[in-house]
Amino acid sequence: MREIAIAPAAPGARPALPDELLRATRPYIVRGLAAGWPLVRAARDSIDAGDAYLRRFYRDATVNAMLGKPEIGGRFFYDDTLSGFNFFSVRARLDAVLDEMRGHRDRDAAAPGQPQPAIYVGSTTIDTALPGLRADNDVDLHGRDALASIWIGNRTRIAAHYDLPDNLAVVAAGRRRFTLFPPEQLANLYIGPIDFTPAGQSISLVDVTAPDFARFPRFRQALEHAQVAELDAGDAIFIPSMWWHHVEALAPFNVLVNYWWRQSPDYMDTPTNALMLALLTMRELPPEQRRAWQEMFRHYIFEPDAEALDHIPPQARYALAPLDDERARTLRGQLLKRINR
């Protein structure tokens, strides 16, 4: 994976990336992007200092936490039948979660090597859970309306999954290993259910840290295209839209700050809706009809010809006209009527 070198931010300034890098379609690493963040400096001093710095911004917020027994080895996943999960989710005060993590660290120090429960606070909006944290711990994204989230936990593993938005992830405490796969490796990743998932996105059923090649032989091909990076506190990684990524938190106390944004207008729905509708309306069609619809999608969606609509007056193109907020609302209303027939 390529590493990008940028000039360090001036004291008190937000680090920034060139705008063209925020529109990239390949992943990259920026070492030390957030090295000047007070949170990063505190976490580098000690785990207790990093923990204490986070608590300065706590204002009685509750968060979603995932808890797993020591036997799962930090891997949040399905149960053996894929009908449930190997962890449970709770709503809890953030300070109580931090207390629980600290208690397990203390017990580990007293009896090193004992397996510890897995604790993970995922995708929590920073401004809600820790208001004020971003004042001195933020990245300049050139005006992008990004969702800034925080992820806190001990040694955990998150299965390979994709995100629709582009993603700039900053390790603020601890150390993480990212294993990335390009979108075209989909068939080699053995993806699980798309509508019953541990955390909202479909995931690979392969344990990247110990792959079972007898069960998942094509995963060897995926590994040939994998890109792996280990990041320390202050380092950042850019993960483009739709790239599959497996994330391992390698320290007893890990904090990740990430920014999600889409390179598309807000009125566009998620393409996942189209996929689900295609399952409902096309997958069971006879082969010839599926091929006909494949050509329809190629013509209108995936390889549209600039002159394909010249025969229709612009005022009469309706849904085929370029989308804007008003047309998107109209099209969504028409679609809802059709679905709810």
Automatic annotation (TrEMBL):
Which SMART domains does the annotation name? Answer: JmjC
Pfam families per the UniProt record, alphabetical? Cupin_8
Indicate the segments annotated as coiled coil, or none if absent: none
Instruction: Specify the domain of life of the species encoding this protein.
Output: Bacteria
Write down the InterPro entries for this protein, in alphabetical order. Answer: Cupin_8, JmjC_dom
Which SUPFAM superfamilies does the annotation name? Clavaminate synthase-like
JmjC domain: which residues? 119-276
Q: Which PANTHER family match?
A: HYPOXIA-INDUCIBLE FACTOR 1 ALPHA INHIBITOR-RELATED, HYPOXIA-INDUCIBLE FACTOR 1-ALPHA INHIBITOR
**The protein's name:** Cupin-like domain-containing protein
Lineage of the organism: Bacteria, Pseudomonadati, Pseudomonadota, Betaproteobacteria, Burkholderiales
